[in-house]
Structures are given as structure tokens and as C-alpha cells.
Amino acid sequence: MWILGISAYYHDSAACLVRDGVIVAAAQEERFSRKKHDHRFPSHAVAFCLRHAGIKADDLECVVFYDKPLQKFDRLIETYLDYAPSGLRSFLKAMPLWLREKLWMREEIARQCGFKGKVLFTEHHEAHAASAFYPSPFESAAILTIDGVGEWSTSSYGKGQGNQLDLLAEMVFPHSLGLLYSAFTYYTGFKVNSGEYKVMGLAPYGQPRYTQKILDELVDLRPDGSLRLNLEYFNFCQGLTMTNTAFDRLFGGPPRQPESPLTDREMDLARSVQEVTELAMMRMAQHVHTATGERNLCLAGGVALNCVANGRILRDGPFEKIWIQPAAGDAGGALGAALSVWHQYAGGARQVSYPDAMSGALLGPEFSNDEIRGFLDAAGARYHEIHPRDLPDRVAAVLADNKVVGWFQGRMEFGPRALGARSILGDPRSPRMQSIMNLKIKFRESFRPFAPAVLRERVSEYFEMNCDSPYMLLVAQVREDLRIPMTEQQGQLFGIDKLNVPHSTIPAVTHVDYSARVQTVCREQNQPYYDLIRAFERLTGCAVLVNTSFNVRGEPIVCTPDQAFTCFMRTEMDYLVLGDFLLDKDEQGEFVEDKSWQEEFQLD
To answer: What are phi and psi of 143, to 5 degrees?
Structure first.
């Protein structure tokens, strides 16, 4: 039984194909359209999924959409009526898309996919819950979903057992932990639904001087983690912004203008809302543990991408183990919707897999060496073909020479993180690597930290954790014996000034608070990536690499060989690995971007 799941029309549209409960393919639309966080119908992603499986739309048992548009429309209309006439501008902006496309999902699926069969709908948080539990390595578990808003729900919890999933309680709009965090994302000058991780990365530079003000004025946080927002300070119900002038007065001025210099205020605001978020999530976890009696916890929803809070739940919370869906945001709703239909609607059996059923999230397109060679020859690139057994040692030597390498191998990742298929890699021992990658390659804010990729069997030798973290969704502290204590003079530094102080023997992946967003790598999930880190360890004694996504600021992660080559040539990357081919920047001629190959590698 083939089931196609779709998420669309909010942000991060995606498609996922499931066969008899097994995830066959999944991808976000942005990777094909090259429009970051593309919200449009995922026609390219659908085409990829069907082509990868070698089937047509007629072979599908059903298509399932990740939420119920009529319920969401009901919430919008009720909210606009509650605030009328002040929400008129927002109403007029939203309605055309609803009346043209969103309310006609069955017709839109038929038009976009050529599918005339059964179309089903799950509830938004049911899709999140299914994406969290069904691929997890647990036979039974508690489930917690937290995001901005679905139809009406903003958070929910429940439990899963075998192929059954039951949601027990929910929190409803407009009271939302995700919307609270997004309000501060907007107020600190970042883009809502994409800049929240920047707020999380900025938080360690600040002081929690607004934490109590947030708890006193903005949010009534209850002992069970439920909350109520003071709507006098927010504008998202009726306006085109997240906050209002009352919010401005509370925090001493208007929102920061995007791209303007960061001040201590933004850093302190980021730290404060991060602390409130962690407190809320810890209380939720405690309550869910008590209510379900389960030992394990599964997480999904956009707030579950807050890896700092996830790490705290694992470290200080009541659960023995936690598992987070790598595509925890709306993209993962497509996957959850398909799995929910297989298990709940069709009654399909569930096979629990270890480490999980996500195949390392390597569920996207891949390209053969023949395809890659064809592109390189047509592009006039100069390259060296390396035997697969020799490639790890060759690239490890380049990395040990303090060079930056673009790494393009196998199937593309599903979800927001590069996990060793479409990655940019570097030497974590270099005190200059973070600034080189941020400013010369990623073209992004200097304060942003990078993730360490570490061999799974070595993780406890570098970090204060000893569990699987394959998807960069857990933050842990660097081991104390690897930290470099700050001098008295360095201890007087504030804010971004802390950035240039090496904090450990692996400074490129150590944040200013000695934390790191850890990715553990095992050979069973990604052999080429594991073998590279293992070769680097043999050469240097260090079983860690810097890993960041293969893209520049404002663009989606690369999907195809031509996109990887273009990114390589546009930036100050030193080397590029495409399959079995190694390219040296110094050997390349003048780069003239050739768009003709886009047709050859178009994935629709």
C-alpha cells in the first residue's frame, strides 16, 4: 500500500511517500524550487517521491494532507470576528489564498498530482505526534507536540503503544509557547518561522534580565506547563506583526530593524525567552511523565527544534530516553500524516527499528557517479576521481590542513539540518574555523555556532552525554577537561566580544557557554561520513568534525551536483567532494554560472 503525505501552505512544504509503513522518500519543496521555506504546494517534492519509487499517482492508495483546512479556516474567521474591525488588513491579505487554493485541497491535489483517488486529512498535531512516535525506537512512549498553532491546537500530549496513538489533552490558540518565542524572534529583528534558531544561538551571549518580566507581564505559566498569554502585548491575532506598541514600551523601544547591529538588549531578550521556554518545556515534560507513566518521550512540532531545551529535558527531566523527529516542523507533518493513515486508518502493523525508522533522515534525491561526472565534464570542472576506499584518508588530510570542504554524498537529508550528505566540513581544533565559515563561506552572522559531528562511540570522550543524537537535536556541555578557562581579563568581556576567545580544545564547535549541538555518527546510518571522521581521527587523534549545512545564508541546502558546484565556486570553500570526485578550488578556472544544467538536473 502506497500512501503519499503532503504538507503545504504555511511554511516548509514537503511530501513523503510510505509503503506498508516504511518511509521510502521524503523531501521539502524548497530544495527543488530554491525558495527558502517554500510554502507552496510541493509539486516538485511529490514528483521526486513518485519517481524515486518508480510509481505513478494512480498507484497510490491515498493522499493525505497534514491538517484540516476547514477547521483552520474556522479558527481564522472566528479570530478576525473577535478583533473586527482592527484585523481588516490581515483578513484581506489572507483570504485570497484561502478562497483560491486552501479550501479546495482535494481539487488542488487532483490538479497538481494527477490523482483522482481518495484524499484524507489528519489533524495538524496528530500528524506531528505520528511523526514523533511511529519512527521512534520505542514500543511505547509519551508524546509531546509543541508549535505555533495548527487548526486550534498549539501543544498536545498523549501516548503511543504499538501501532496505536492517543492524544489526551491539548492547549489551544491563541495561547502558544511557539508564538511567544516567535514574538521575540520578530522583536529581536529576525524572521518569524525561520529565525528562531538564531535567537537560540544568540541567547548564551546575554543575561536573563527580562525573564521575570516575561513571566510577570506576558505569560501565566502554570505548574503543568500550560500557559496563557497576555494578549494586550501581542498583535498576531489581528495584525501583520507579532508584537504591538505596548510590547515596545515594556521592553524599552521598538523592534530591532533587521540587519542592524545587535545590542545587549537583543542578547538579553534572547537569553530571557530561552529560559522561559526551557522552564515551560520542563514543566510540560514533568506533567506528561506523570500523566502517562511512560519511561520514554517523543517530541515533534517546531518548538522541538529547540535543541537547548531538548538537552535540558534529557539531562534534568524525568524520562529515561527521548527521541525527536528530525523534521520536527511542518515538513515532518507530511511524514506523520502518511504514517498516521497507515497505522491508524488502515490498521497497518508497526515494526520498531533501532536506532529508528528514519534511515538517518537520508530520504531525498541522490546522484550516481556517472551523473556527477557528466555534469563536471559539461561544466569544464577540473577534478580527481578517487577510489571510495581512499577517499576518506585523502579528504581527512585536507581537513587536517585547515581547509574547508564541501561534502556531497548519497541521498539528501530530510529536515532542516545537514547531517553528512549535504554538509560543509572543517577542523574543530582550529580557533579561526568558526569565523572563516561564518563570514567567508556561509555569509551569515558571526555569533552563530557550528555543530560537532562525532563518532557515536566517542561522544562521551568529548561531551557530557552518552546517547544517540544523530539529528543535531540535543545540546550538551563540552567535557570539563577539554574546556579552556577564561582569564580574568576575558571574564570581563560582554556579548559578542566573547566570540573570539577559544573555549575548549575543539573551539570551532564550542559555544560561549561551553555547549555544543551534538551530532553522533554511526557507520550503519551513513558509512561514507563515518569513515571520513574515522580517518580524521586516525590522522589527528580527534574524532570530531565541524559540520554545517551546504548552503549560503538565505538559500536552501543544495540538492543537486550543479547547486553544490555553484556554492563551492561562489564562496571561499577550498575543496569539494561530489561522490567519488575531489575538486581543488585552486585548480578551477574562472567561474561563469551556467544555468543550462538546471534543465538536466530538474527534479520535476
So the answer is: -130, 135
- The catalytic residue positions are 11
Reference 129, options 292, 299, 352; nearest CA is: 299
Residue 107, all three cell numbers = 481539487
SS3 202: helix
Instruction: Check residue 557 and report its DSSP letter.
Output: P
Q: Tell me if 548 sits within 8 A of 451, measured CB to CB.
A: yes
Q: What tens digit of pLDDT does each residue of 486-534 get?
A: 766 656 555 556 666 788 999 999 999 999 999 999 999 999 999 999 9
How far from 185 is each of 188, 196, 198, 353, 417, CA to CA, in Å? 5, 6, 8, 37, 20
Give per-residue pLDDT as tens, 388-420.
999 999 999 999 999 999 999 999 999 999 999
Question: In whole angstroms, what is the distance from residue 546 CA to residue 525 CA?
Answer: 19
**Rounded CA gap, 400 and 422, in Å?**
20
Which residues, 6+ apart, have CB-to-CB distance to 496 below 8 Å?
A: 205, 262, 267, 446, 447
DSSP symbol at 463: B
| Paired strand residues for 584 | 575
In the chain, where the domains are located: 369-600
Phi, psi for residue 226 in degrees, rounded to 5: -70, 160
Helix, strand, coil % over all residues of the chain, rounded to 5: 40, 20, 40
CATH number of 369-600: 3.90.870.20
Sheet strands side by side (includes 296-300): 164-172, 153-161, 140-146, 296-300, 321-324
